[in-house]
Design brief:
Length: 772
C-alpha cells in the first residue's frame, strides 16, 4: 500500500485551503442605472430570502454595480432604493455556484406618491450546463407522501428518470449518487447495503437535484447529486413545530422541531420517530413480516462572527430498523428462485454525521471555504436462529473522516475560477457468518469471520467559468483523483491503487429575444469503488456457489449531453438528451440463496436517454404545475471484471455472453405529473400521477412472458387546511396509490426476493406551530 503517496496527497489537500464555495453558495450581482442608462451610485440594495428572515445589504459603487457573495441556494427578492427614484424589486432563484446578473432601471420618483416597481429576473441559468431541479420545503410539505421520513418522493416526483425499485433509488440508469448536506459531501461507498434515509425531508429548506454535466468542482457520482440546504432557524423566531401523523398499516411519522435567530446567530434542531407495519417492497401482493421503525435527531447552527467570517455546523444521528418481507407459500414461483418462506430476518442501520464549514470572504471577488466532516454508517443484517434454509448474519461498519475546501475568485468581472480539493480516509470492517439449516449434519457452513480495511480518496480540481458575452458562457475544468483501496487483513487481496485525470467541458448559448438557452457538455468521471472486505469464509461460500472474488476497480464514465431551456411567461421547459458509456460499471449481486449482496463490475455499460421537465409559475396565484418525463435505455455487457465474479473457465450458467442487454432496473418510460394548489379558505390540495412502462423482466415465465414487466400507474392526493393566526395549525389527509393497484414491479433478487409495488396508504397529518 502506498501510504506515503496517499497521505501526502491528503495533507496537501487539507492544508491548501482551497473545493468550491461549499457548493450550496452562489453569488448575486447587478447594476443600477437611471432611465438614461447612467449608473446610480450609492443606491441601497437589500437581498431578502423568500422563505426566511435571511438578508444581506449592499451599496452600489460609482459604476452602479453591487454584489452579494456566499448566498445559499434558494428564492430571493432584491430591492433597490435611492432618493428621487421609485423603489425597484426583482425576484431571483439561485442555484449553487451560479452568479445571476440583475439589471435595475430606476424610474424617476413622484413627489405625491411612492411606488414599487416589481420585476422578474431571467429564469434560465447561464452559469451552468447542469440540468437542475430545485424543490423547496413547501413543495415537500404539500407533495403527497414527500415529507415522510423514509420517502424519496421529493426526488422521484420532480426528477426525470428517478425511481425506487428493489428498495433502492435509481437515477439515470445508475446506482451511485452523492448526498451533499450544507454543501458538504457525505461519503458512502457501500452499494446495496443501506436502506435508511440520509436526512428527514422535514429538515430540508431546499433540495437541489443535479443530473449529470457537472463542473469539475463537483464529485464523480455521474448519475445524480442531491445538494441539500437544511433548515437554519432564519425562518423562525423562537418558534417550534410539532408534526404528528397516523394511518393504515399503523404508520406514524412524527417530529418536533424548533429554531430561532438573532442578527448574527441562527439555530435549528429536531427529533423524529416513525414506524409502520409496511416498510420494504414485498415479494408478493400480500404484506408479511414487513414492519419498520426509526428515530433520530438533526441540528444546524450558523454564526456570523463578522461580515467576513461565517461558521456553519450540521449534525445528524439516527437509527432505522427493517424487517425483511417474505413470501410464506413454499410452492410459489418466487420461492423457487429465492426461498424466503422460512426466513425472519431484519436490517438495523445506525448512521451519524457532522460537518463544519468556515466561510471567509476576503472581498466580493474572493471566497474561501473549509469544511471538515465525519460520517459513521453501519448496515447490520440479522437472521433468526430458527431460519430455514439459511441463517445469515452480516455487519458492515464504515467510518469516514475527511474535509473539503475551496477558493473561488472572479477575474475581469466575467471569469469565475475555482480551485480546490476533496478527500477522505475510510475504515471498513465486516463481520460475516453463514449457516445452512436444510441439510442436517452434512451442511458446510462458512464463518464466523471478520475483516477490515483502510483506504481513501484524494482529489484536486480546477474549474473555469468564463462569460464571454451576455449570451455565451464557456466552462472548462479538470479533476484528478487518487484512490487506494488498502489491503484486507488476513486476506490475500491486494490493494487497488488508481489515478484518474478527468477533463470536463461545457458551453451555454442564449438566443437573443427568445432567451432560449442551448447547452452542451462532455466530461469524464471516475467513481471510486467500495472497499471490498472478502475474507476466507466469504470466499469459500462464493466458491461453493461456483463464484469467486476479484479486485474492484473504479467505474470510468464518459458523458455527452445536449439540452435547451425555454422560458415562456414564467413557464420553463427543459429538454435534454444524454449518453453515458461506462467501463467497470458498478452493480450488485447475491451469493446463492441468501440476502448477501456484494458489489460487482460489468465490463461495459451504455445508458442513453431523453429527459423533459416543465415547471409553471404560480397559476392564477393559486398553484404550480410540474412534469418530469424520461425515455431511456440502460444496458450492460459481460464479462464481470471485479467484485463477485465467475471463476475461470467461465461457464454460461454463471455469466451471460458478451453483448449489450438491459439491466435489471431498466425502464424505458417514466412520467410524473403533479400540481400543488393553495385554494380559498386556506385549503391546500396536491396531486401526483406516476406512470412507469415496466422494468426489465429478468425471469420470463407463463405469467410474465415478455422482455418487460407490466406497465403501472399510481395516483396520489393530499388535501389540507390551515387554521389560526399565521396558519398556526394545519391538518391534512393523504392517500397514496389511491386505486390500490398491485403488481410485480421487478424480479431481481434483493432484500426478500421479488418486489411488488407499494400498497395503498392513507394517513392524517397534524402540524402545530407555537412560540416558546
Amino acid at each position: 500500500m502506498r501510504k506515503p503517496v496517499f497521505c501526502l496527497c491528503l495533507a496537501v489537500f487539507l492544508l491548501s485551503g482551497s473545493v468550491l464555495q461549499a457548493t450550496i453558495f452562489g453569488r448575486i450581482q447587478g447594476i443600477v442605472h437611471d432611465p438614461q442608462h447612467r449608473p446610480v451610485a450609492g443606491a441601497s440594495v437589500k437581498l431578502r430570502a423568500v422563505t426566511s428572515d435571511y438578508s444581506q445589504t449592499a451599496q452600489a459603487n460609482d459604476a452602479g454595480e453591487f454584489s452579494f457573495t456566499a448566498v445559499p441556494v434558494g428564492d430571493y427578492r432584491v430591492t433597490v432604493t435611492q432618493s428621487n427614484f421609485e423603489t425597484s424589486e426583482q425576484s431571483v432563484t439561485l442555484d449553487s455556484s451560479s452568479s445571476p446578473v440583475l439589471h435595475f432601471q430606476l424610474a424617476i420618483g413622484s413627489l405625491s406618491q411612492s411606488a414599487v416597481v416589481v420585476g422578474e429576473a431571467g429564469v434560465v441559468n447561464m452559469d451552468s450546463v447542469t440540468p437542475t431541479t430545485l424543490v423547496d420545503r413547501e413543495d415537500i410539505a404539500q407533495t403527497p407522501g414527500a415529507d415522510r421520513t423514509n420517502s424519496l418522493a421529493m426526488i422521484t416526483d420532480f426528477t426525470p428518470g428517478a425511481y425506487v425499485t428493489h428498495d433502492m433509488l435509481h437515477m439515470r440508469g445508475g446506482h451511485q449518487v452523492d448526498w451533499l448536506i450544507d454543501g458538504v459531501p457525505i461519503p458512502n461507498t457501500n452499494i446495496a447495503t443501506n436502506l435508511g434515509p440520509q436526512i428527514d425531508p422535514k429538515d430540508i429548506d431546499y433540495l437541489e437535484v443535479q443530473r449529470g454535466s457537472y463542473d469539475a468542482e463537483y464529485g464523480d457520482r455521474t448519475y445524480g447529486i442531491f445538494n441539500i440546504v437544511p433548515r437554519t432557524g432564519f425562518e423562525r423566531d423562537n418558534e417550534a413545530e410539532l408534526v404528528a401523523s397516523f394511518g393504515n398499516w399503523y404508520q406514524t411519522n412524527d417530529q418536533l422541531n424548533f429554531g430561532g435567530h438573532t442578527k448574527r446567530f441562527a439555530y435549528y434542531a429536531s427529533v423524529n420517530a416513525n414506524r409502520s407495519d409496511y416498510g420494504l417492497q414485498p415479494p408478493i401482493g400480500q404484506v408479511v413480516h414487513d414492519a419498520q421503525n426509526g428515530y433520530g435527531g438533526f441540528a444546524s447552527f450558523i454564526f456570523n462572527a463578522s461580515p467576513a467570517n461565517q461558521f456553519r455546523l450540521v449534525a445528524s444521528l439516527r437509527q432505522d430498523y427493517y424487517q425483511i418481507p417474505i413470501d410464506p407459500n413454499p410452492s410459489s414461483s418466487g420461492n423457487q428462485d429465492y426461498p424466503s418462506y422460512g426466513l425472519h430476518d431484519s436490517e438495523r442501520e445506525p448512521d451519524g454525521y457532522v460537518t463544519f464549514s468556515w466561510v471567509h470572504t476576503f472581498n466580493p471577488k474572493l471566497l474561501l471555504t473549509v469544511s471538515p466532516f465525519y460520517h459513521y454508517n453501519q448496515a447490520s443484517y440479522n437472521s433468526s436462529p430458527n431460519d430455514f434454509p439459511v441463517i445469515t448474519n452480516v455487519r458492515q461498519t464504515a467510518n469516514y473522516g475527511g474535509a473539503q475546501a475551496s477558493l473561488s475568485a472572479t477575474f475581469l468581472k466575467n471569469n469565475d475560477i475555482q480551485v480546490g480539493a476533496y478527500g477522505f480516509v475510510q475504515h471498513q470492517a465486516t463481520y460475516f457468518n453463514n449457516v445452512f439449516t436444510d441439510c442436517g449434519t452434512s451442511c458446510q457452513n462458512f464463518g464466523p469471520s471478520s475483516g477490515s480495511v483502510t483506504g481513501g480518496l484524494a482529489e484536486l480540481f480546477v474549474s473555469d467559468r468564463y462569460k464571454v458575452t451576455s449570451w455565451l458562457t464557456l466552462i472548462a475544468g479538470f479533476r484528478y483523483s487518487h484512490f487506494n483501496s488498502g489491503s484486507v487483513g488476513g486476506s490475500s487481496q491486494v490493494a487497488v491503487v488508481e489515478n484518474a485525470p478527468d477533463p470536463r467541458f461545457g458551453v451555454a448559448v442564449r438566443i437573443p429575444r427568445l432567451n432560449w438557452v442551448f447547452r452542451g457538455f462532455y466530461g469524464v468521471f471516475y467513481q471510486p469503488p467500495p472497499l471490498l472486505t472478502a475474507t476466507g469464509p466469504v470466499i469459500d461460500l462464493a466458491n461453493s456457489q461456483s463464484l469467486t472474488f476479484g479486485p474492484l476497480r473504479g467505474e470510468r464514465d464518459h458523458e455527452y449531453q445536449f439540452g435547451v431551456a425555454i422560458p415562456f411567461r414564467g413557464w420553463t421547459l427543459d429538454i435534454d438528451t444524454f449518453q453515458t458509456s461506462s467501463r467497470n460499471w458498478l452493480d450488485h449481486s447475491n451469493i446463492g440463496e441468501s440476502n448477501l449482496f456484494w458489489p460487482l463490475t460489468w465490463d461495459y455499460a451504455l445508458i442513453q436517454g431523453w429527459e423533459t421537465t416543465l415547471r409553471s409559475p404560480r397559476l392564477w396565484r393559486r398553484g404550480q404545475f410540474h412534469l418530469a418525463y424520461s425515455n431511456q435505455i440502460a444496458q450492460d455487457s459481460a464479462p464481470f471484471t471485479g467484485g463477485l465474479i465467475c471463476p475461470v473457465p467461465v461457464s454460461s450458467d454463471c455469466e451471460p455472453p458478451p453483448g449489450l442487454s438491459p439491466v435489471d432496473h431498466d425502464q424505458r418510460n417514466t412520467l410524473n405529473v403533479g400540481f400543488n394548489a393553495t385554494l380559498p379558505w386556506r385549503v391546500l390540495a396536491s396531486t401526483n400521477v406516476y406512470y412507469g412502462s415496466g422494468f426489465h423482466n429478468g425471469s420470463p415465465n407463463d405469467q410474465y412472458p415478455g422482455d418487460y414487466l407490466p406497465q403501472h400507474t399510481t395516483f396520489d392526493i393530499s388535501l389540507g387546511k390551515s387554521f389560526g393566526e399565521k396558519d398556526k395549525y394545519r391538518i391534512s389527509l393523504t392517500a397514496l396509490n389511491v386505486a390500490n393497484r398491485r403488481l410485480l414491479l421487478d424480479n431481481s433478487l434483493t432484500f426478500g426476493g421479488f418486489h411488488f409495488n407499494d400498497p395503498r396508504q392513507i394517513y392524517v397529518e397534524f402540524r402545530w406551530r407555537f412560540h416558546y
